[in-house]
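Quick one:
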Amino acid sequence: MSTTIASERLIDIDEVGQILGLARSRIYELGRTHGLRPVKIGRSSRWLDREVHALLAALVASRGADAPSGSPAPLAA
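Output:
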């Protein structure tokens, strides 16, 4: 699938936070650790919606297989 720049959706940090369930500082940290880099427009930062969702999918895929999806971890005795 070919994507052009004009069809890319840019989202602000509040929407990134809602998608990932993270605070602003953690989102900027992900830029350093996982390559989630903003597009700078003047003094504003925007993220590619596609990249945010790709990161979320990668994080979900890389989690440990110890607990089944949706199951809480057992409590320590």
